[in-house]
Amino acid sequence: MKSKFLLLICLMLFLMPLILHAKVYKVFFDTKPQLSTKKVYFKGYEIGSVERDYLTPDGDVIVEVNIYDNYDKLMQHNVVFYVKDGKLVLYDFGPMSSSQFNQSNRKLLGFHSEAKFYMYYLRRKFSSGLNELEKKIKSIRK
User: Fold this and answer.
1) Per-residue pLDDT for 86 more than 90?
2) CB atoms within 10 A of CB 79
3) For residues 130-139, average pLDDT
4) Where are the domains of the chain?
5) What are the backbone angles phi and psi of residue 66, rounded to the nearest 5°?
6) What predicted TM-score, i.e. pTM, was given to this entire model?
7) Is the C-alpha dihedral spanning 52, 108, 55, 41 positive or negative?
8) Measured between alpha carbons, how far is residue 113 from residues 23, 42, 61 in Å?
9) Which DSSP string do the residues of the chain spell out, in sequence order?
């Protein structure tokens, strides 16, 4: 009886990753984030889990996250991660063009707080606005 139970447990442990069909993504942080849960959230809903974190020889801290199959389409968008109240949260900037999307060398950014994420967001918006302004000025000068 015990051997059948152990066999069943082993079979479940083997099949569980195949059932969940999660994909692993690497999120880069400058130092180890303070996470109180292993879950990943988007708009308050659990969309994945933190698999592990480690320090690379180059000094980057990488947090590997599993994103469940039914939410994997989000990862084809321009996304970043940030820590809020000890939880890892995904922020979606929207779809990327096919020329922008290259999964193999994509570096996903991670921020230690919502405030640091918003500073990045504002710099990005400001930079984008400046680029548009430069284009308009150049077109007027022609």
Assistant:
1) yes
2) 20
3) 68
4) 19-132
5) -95, 125
6) 0.68
7) negative
8) 24, 15, 15
9) -HHHHHHHHHHHHHHHHHHH--EEEEEEESS----S-SEEEETTEEEEEEEEEEE-TTS-EEEEEEE-GGGGGGGGEEEEEEEETTEEEEEEEEEPPTTT--GGG--EEEESSHHHHHHHHHHHHHHHHHHHHHHHHHHHH-
Burial 31-57 (b: 16+ CB within 10 A, else e): eebeeeeebbbbeeeebbbbeebeeee
Q: Quick one: which of 103, 62, 115, 109 has its CA closest to 81?
A: 109
Cβ atoms of 61 and 31 within 8 Å: the answer is: yes
What is the rounded end-to-end Cα distance, in angstroms, of the chain? 85
Tokens of 125: 């918006």
Read off the tokens for 12. Answer: 């479940």
Q: What does pLDDT average to over the chain?
A: 80
Position 122 pLDDT exceeds 70: yes
